Amino acid sequence: MSSPSDKSSEAKCPVDHSSREVWLKQAQQQKQEQKCPVDHNSREVWMQNAQRTQPLEQKCPVDHKTQDVWLQQARGVGEAVECSSDELPTIPKYNTDVELPENREVSSIPRTGAQANWVYPSEKQFYEAMLRKKWDPDAIDMRTVVPLHNSVNERVWNCIKSWEKDQGGDACGGVQLTSFKGDSKKLTPRAWFRSTILGLSKPFDRHDWTVNRCGKNVDYVIDFYNEDDESMGPQIFLDVRPKLNSLEGVRLRVLKSLGF
């Protein structure tokens, strides 16, 4: 997604760009295969692999109906809603003359308090954000890294919508994304138990999203795992669930565990 505001010029997104190695590794694999970052023929395989890294109740396939949404070009950068800004949208300022697309794609994720969805960063925004973080990005990688980044965001949102199904959000038009933050260095209790007690791999990233359900905030936590699959190459798996920091989060987790 796009930058919080042009005050900081940071292209912060629900998927933390500090996980550069994971993104580039999978992007290179997909570029070599010349495939879309979301393999639309691999739902069954993805579901089977996901069972190894996320509990049964957290599984959810990529909703291919959202493909057209996140592949559509934004009507205009000046009209687009900034990804994490509560201020009026502004035209991004670029600091390089690298030739990369500046068009942005509209996500399927509604933004709280706005009659619009969040908007993903352009390839050029993504590239310049990596430069500001003192990385050495290859401009050509942006054509695969950015779609991959966007598709993972869509997968996260679809998982959250699965949790929110029949919880009352439809009464006001559906849940909306209020805010998000990433902290790749802070393990969730589940990730700590998996890695420390069970000896399984640690997630490469952790994010916290807050959604609005008819005026009520519900917090979610997401662990991102990567795994090399012999047949499919590098894969990203998600463990999405409500945080246990509120009675609502506890209620949702208990209901899921009971099969409701």
From TrEMBL:
Similarity comment text for this entry: Belongs to the cytochrome c-type heme lyase family.
Keywords: Heme, Iron, Lyase, Membrane, Metal-binding, Mitochondrion, Mitochondrion inner membrane
Organism superkingdom: Eukaryota
PANTHER family in alphabetical order: CYTOCHROME C1 HEME LYASE, HOLOCYTOCHROME C-TYPE SYNTHASE
Molecular function GO terms recorded: holocytochrome-c synthase activity; metal ion binding
Assigned EC number: 4.4.1.17
Protein name: Holocytochrome c-type synthase
Predominant location: mitochondrion
Compartments in which it is found: Mitochondrion inner membrane
One GO cellular component, as annotated: mitochondrial inner membrane
Record-linked InterPro entries: Holocyt_c/c1_synthase
Protein function: Lyase that catalyzes the covalent linking of the heme group to the cytochrome C apoprotein to produce the mature functional cytochrome.
Presence of the UniProt keyword Mitochondrion in the record: yes
UniProt biased composition (Basic and acidic residues): 7-23
Lyase found in the keyword field: yes
Region described as Disordered: 1-39
Reaction(s) the record says it catalyses: holo-[cytochrome c] = apo-[cytochrome c] + heme b
